[in-house]
Amino acid sequence: MAFSKISEIIKISDERGLPFWQIILEDDLLERNTTYEESFGRMKAMFDAMVQADKDYSADLRSQSGLSGGDGAKLEKFRQQNNRLIGDFLTMVMEKAVK
Amino acid sequence: MNIFDIIGPVMVGPSSSHTAGAVKIGYVSQKLLGEPVAKAEILLYGSFLATGKGHGTNFALVAGLLGMTQDDKRIPQSFEIARSQGIELVFGKANLKNYHPNSVQLNLTGKNGRHLEIIGESVGGSVINIANIDGLSANFSGDNPTLIVHNKDQPGHVAEVTSMLSHKSVNIATMQLYRANRGGEAVMVLELDQEIPQDALAWLSKLEGVNKVTYYSLK
To answer: Which residues of A touch B54 (CB under 8 A)?
Structure first.
């Protein structure tokens, strides 16, 4: 990857008037010597997997040891509380990430 | 490093290092063997050994040896599938010192009699490192086509390999040289931007002073 700081990406994004994600995609095309379709398609497959994980989530799912599981449901409940320090968007991101 | 090292992997869990990384080690190892696996001795070390049961590490390693990738839903059935293919599996504890806590030694025998001993490390986020092949250091992740040449430590062999690659227009991304002792056994590990044609590999393995050629292909 050609970047070592976020500020480098933002600078290029501002200079060229292109969105942040497109700068990353262009770098990926060079780094892995691939096509726009392959890179975008691969990222889309990741996103689809994340959406599917959220759809298939069950609060009852546990790991083999029984130690992991159920935290996504806890965050979903937390999201309904009013006394949170952070807003709904960030809470949702946390909830979906853990699910 | 690329963006897909940061985002991902899509895997059958539970652990990206103990499960997905283990699948990858198995997968790279069977490709390095270059023929179907007839027998695999799987020796775990460190935290792989201690926590392997909960993480399904043995299932994951066998799945990789069967050619499955980390998102294959058949990973939990890998033992049955191996048995149905007549593959002999032996599990045990590795006799290693000072290796990465997530290490495994795989002693493989192929259907055509080829032997290979590999030590693989799972370093996190499904990234792996092949640390040792047949007792000699290596050091590659399996993200690029990789050529490993075991040869006698004497002048000329590096030039033979690099001029062959130049002749076939294969670019070298990284190159490492190790030796067991001066004048003894030496190894070259080259990660490449392009694949090496089969005829070039055959030519290389017949050279005087070249003991073994192992190749990891992305195809």
So the answer is: 63-65
B78 Cα to chain A: minimum distance (Å): 17
Q: What residues of B are in contact with residue A65 (Cβ under 8 Å)?
A: 54
Alpha-carbon gap, residue B46 to B23, rounded angstroms = 17
- Asked if A42 has any chain B CB less than 8 Å from its own CB, the reply is yes
Q: Which of A6-10, B48-52, B128-132, B148-152 has the lowest mean pLDDT?
A: B48-52
What residues contact A45, with CB distance under 8 A and at least 6 apart? B10
Q: Note the pLDDT tens digit of each residue in A54-98.
A: 888 888 888 766 777 888 889 999 999 988 999 999 999 999 888
Q: Which residues contact A31 (CB under 8 A, 6 or more apart)?
A: A1, A2, B2, B3
As a whole number of angstroms, the distance between CA B50 and CA B39 comes to: 24
Interface probe, candidates A6, A61, A63, chain B, greatest B C-beta count within 10 A: A63
pLDDT tens digits along B7-56: 877 887 677 778 889 999 999 999 999 999 999 999 999 888 888 777 78
Predicted complex: ipTM over 0.90: no
Phi, psi of B90 (to 5 degrees): -125, 130
Take residue B81 and report the two structure tokens written for it.
């599938």
What's the rounded Cα separation, in Å, for the pair A31 and B52? 35
Structure tokens at A36: 């726009």
Query: What's B65's DSSP letter?
Result: H
Do the chains contact at B2 and A28, CB–CB below 8 Å?
yes
CA distance B60 to B171: 33
